[in-house]
Write a structure and sequence with these properties.
By secondary structure, this protein is mainly alpha-helical. The chain contains 13 helices and two strands, in the order ααααββααααααααα. A two-stranded antiparallel ribbon has the order 1-2. Helix 3 (about 40-45) packs antiparallel against helix 10 (about 145-155). The structure holds a DNA duplex (13 and 12 nucleotides).
DNA sequence: ACCCAGGAATTGT
DNA sequence: ACAATTCATGGG
């Protein structure tokens, strides 16, 4: 199992072989990957399709308030994140009232896959990137992008490289080893796999860390001059 | 009214 | 294989 204390030096040494990533790493010395509980990560990213971050946060807030368990911390009341069983048993209309829209079907199918044992997180953590991804892609509501995010943020696949238009722009602007594929406001399945696999080969076993630095820097500097 | 948002599944060619 | 369409929702 991966441990940050042991491997942080190795990881940054590895991804810092690239000059651009080396510069960005120095800009954001505290940036780290989280290791989220898989069911939280899955529900969060299933909610993330075709919407924006404020809306995603609102959906998750509504879900915890409606299906989580109340807990008091320093006299303040919070709600725990719902379990897969909670979502699996949840009433459809109550889920819809959280603002999930058409994503209700997706979150239901994911919850059932977990609750039924079809998805076993210990097995997925022990499996390779390719094997674990293949299992995730079976679930309705989990496509290429969401699968890679789940693998990187909660299943310890540090070589996963989630692709989106921001990362694609960063790669195409800075790396000539990509034979420049044009893309519009969306990435096709073919473009996704070409770009993600190329980046995985280039950055190596900690490609996901490089992805996070590149992505974060793109969002920080969006609209500004580098 | 219109466009967009860290997409994915389904249908059409 | 690949392109087009649909799927709810809220913010700007």
């Amino acid at each position: 199992m991966f441990r940050l204390d042991d491997d942080a030096r190795t990881i940054f040494g590895e991804i810092s072989r690239d000059s651009l990533v080396r510069r960005i790493v120095r800009l954001y010395p505290g940036l780290r990957l989280m290791r989220q509980e898989p069911h939280q990560c899955i529900f969060s990213f299933v909610c993330a399709s075709n919407t924006n971050i404020p809306m995603i946060r609102r959906m998750l807030h509504n879900l915890t308030r409606k299906f989580g368990r109340p807990v008091k911390v320093d006299g303040l009341e919070f709600f725990t994140f719902p379990s897969a069983n909670d979502i699996d048993r949840a009433d459809i209309d109550e889920l819809r009232s959280c603002g999930l829209g058409y994503r209700v079907r997706a979150i239901k199918s994911a919850a059932h896959a977990i609750a039924s044992g079809q998805l076993d997180f210990d097995v997925l953590k022990a499996a390779s990137y390719e094997e674990a991804k293949k299992e995730l892609l079976q679930i309705y509501g989990i496509g290429n992008k969401i699968a890679d995010c789940i693998l990187l943020f909660s299943l310890e696949k540090l070589d996963a490289f989630p692709m989106d238009v921001w990362i694609a722009r960063a790669l195409l602007e800075n790396y000539s080893w990509l034979h420049q594929e044009e893309f519009g406001d969306k990435l096709t399945l073919h473009q996704y796999e070409e770009l993600s696999n190329s980046a995985r080969r280039y950055f190596g076993k900690y490609a996901g860390y490089a992805q996070q630095y590149l992505y974060y820097h793109m969002r920080q500097t969006a609209g500004k001059k580098w």
